[in-house]
């Protein structure tokens, strides 16, 4: 550590440049991770907030809740661990307000999802003309008591409550009654729900034409979700590898320049272990400094980023990403070690 | 017992037609309190001798003993420890670590070998004698070549080794500094009872030597008396 600290102190510009590279890579990875998390959460916030483990859908729906219809016979008998939902895409509009594409989720007031809605303000839905909307509506100027039209339906709905983190497929969710869902889908008297959500991790609907999935299976089939997540994971992975290469190249060049000095130290009996530890400590200090600055920048970004940008700053996840970056950088720092170990002290004897 | 002895050392590099016999049955001894000078032209085998003497190269045949124990009986790690404890190297190319101040060059030795180094007063004396006491807070790049060489000498002396092996220690020094370094090496030998072995072609050091040897085509021979060289 002595040698590493002294070198960083003396070579401020060189160290600063390497740290700057690491800051930029770290900041980019943190922001991309936050974006990936934000987008993933905006795809799944609503589903996760329901607290279900298993989801039963029509077997011909391609694991898509919006394409699923379940009849009364297919639903069968439900326990208090199951909730019905009816889901459909809508466009919400109101006078002097921006139109919003949203997802309508119809619920039954005696079932657990309805009871568990986490209200930010207002109250829960009590009749078919009422809705509870995600707070994205409030950001667009909608208020409690605002009258909203859904699709071409002539009926107006009143916003009686707002709920946070109710998003599905990056669209805000509007909660209403299951009867309203039937009306919006124009299937009154037909199917009674899109899906059965069960808290029971062993729930399995055995009726013909119905298939039961784990929650994650349904999430994975959300349109665009897998492509989005995979893209971000690949980008972050590539950045990790790039950071490894950059650190390795920088440290390799720095170490090569020091080999004649190291050879003299070896002649004098300074053990290779000391020189190896100096190289590892140097890469550790450079990376940890870079990551600290990148974390500060990310924190500053989190404070100023508009709420409409889908970013989520999850400390455990970002911490894991930071640790991953540190590990990759340390692997990069190990590459020049072979040269340090093979330094030939004889090379400095003689003219 | 001699501090340092070399017995029947041969060094052969390469094989077949590329075979080069660099050292021929070299015998050498250095006692504590003496300054031995090995002189010879470039390519005569002086550096190879020094490399073998310092335990950096294992000879093709023969033995090198330090404090009565052969290098062959020591592991690589033990040889490192021996060089750190008992052998001080003064090299032609000084290669001071560029990012350490002169004071830190000595601190590095303290980090690796906390005990047995020169005391602060002793180091002060050495630095004063070499004329580099005022340079402690400077970096090597801020020093002249001669100053760097004197720092390298001080650094080699700092672990307080019993044997000092010097490879052309005065190559970068002017005449006035040569006499200072010669006096310092002589002083180390006599006053501190060290075995000092200097490989050089600098005839200005001859008058300080207790024993004079000549290396020629890999053969080491004694030259006496010193002042007739």
TrEMBL record, chain A:
<dbReference type="GO" id="GO:0005886">
    <property type="term" value="C:plasma membrane"/>
</dbReference>
<keyword id="KW-1003">Cell membrane</keyword>
<protein>
    <recommendedName>
        <fullName>Putative hemin transport system permease protein HrtB</fullName>
    </recommendedName>
</protein>
<feature type="domain" description="ABC3 transporter permease C-terminal">
    <location>
        <begin position="233"/>
        <end position="344"/>
    </location>
</feature>
<dbReference type="Pfam" id="PF02687">
    <property type="entry name" value="FtsX"/>
</dbReference>
<keyword id="KW-1133">Transmembrane helix</keyword>
<keyword id="KW-0472">Membrane</keyword>
<comment type="subunit">
    <text>The complex is composed of two ATP-binding proteins (HrtA), two transmembrane proteins (HrtB) and a solute-binding protein.</text>
</comment>
<feature type="transmembrane region" description="Helical">
    <location>
        <begin position="16"/>
        <end position="39"/>
    </location>
</feature>
<dbReference type="InterPro" id="IPR051125">
    <property type="entry name" value="ABC-4/HrtB_transporter"/>
</dbReference>
<feature type="transmembrane region" description="Helical">
    <location>
        <begin position="232"/>
        <end position="254"/>
    </location>
</feature>
<comment type="similarity">
    <text>Belongs to the ABC-4 integral membrane protein family. HrtB subfamily.</text>
</comment>
<keyword id="KW-0812">Transmembrane</keyword>
<feature type="transmembrane region" description="Helical">
    <location>
        <begin position="317"/>
        <end position="337"/>
    </location>
</feature>
<keyword id="KW-0813">Transport</keyword>
<comment type="function">
    <text>Part of the ABC transporter complex hrt involved in hemin import. Responsible for the translocation of the substrate across the membrane.</text>
</comment>
<feature type="transmembrane region" description="Helical">
    <location>
        <begin position="274"/>
        <end position="305"/>
    </location>
</feature>
<dbReference type="InterPro" id="IPR003838">
    <property type="entry name" value="ABC3_permease_C"/>
</dbReference>
Automatic annotation (TrEMBL), chain B:
<dbReference type="InterPro" id="IPR003439">
    <property type="entry name" value="ABC_transporter-like_ATP-bd"/>
</dbReference>
<dbReference type="GO" id="GO:0005524">
    <property type="term" value="F:ATP binding"/>
</dbReference>
<keyword id="KW-0813">Transport</keyword>
<dbReference type="GO" id="GO:0016887">
    <property type="term" value="F:ATP hydrolysis activity"/>
</dbReference>
<dbReference type="Pfam" id="PF00005">
    <property type="entry name" value="ABC_tran"/>
</dbReference>
<keyword id="KW-0067">ATP-binding</keyword>
<feature type="domain" description="ABC transporter">
    <location>
        <begin position="4"/>
        <end position="228"/>
    </location>
</feature>
<dbReference type="InterPro" id="IPR003593">
    <property type="entry name" value="AAA+_ATPase"/>
</dbReference>
<comment type="similarity">
    <text>Belongs to the ABC transporter superfamily.</text>
</comment>
<dbReference type="InterPro" id="IPR017871">
    <property type="entry name" value="ABC_transporter-like_CS"/>
</dbReference>
<protein>
    <submittedName>
        <fullName>ABC superfamily ATP binding cassette transporter, ABC protein</fullName>
    </submittedName>
</protein>
<dbReference type="InterPro" id="IPR027417">
    <property type="entry name" value="P-loop_NTPase"/>
</dbReference>
<dbReference type="InterPro" id="IPR017911">
    <property type="entry name" value="MacB-like_ATP-bd"/>
</dbReference>
<keyword id="KW-0547">Nucleotide-binding</keyword>
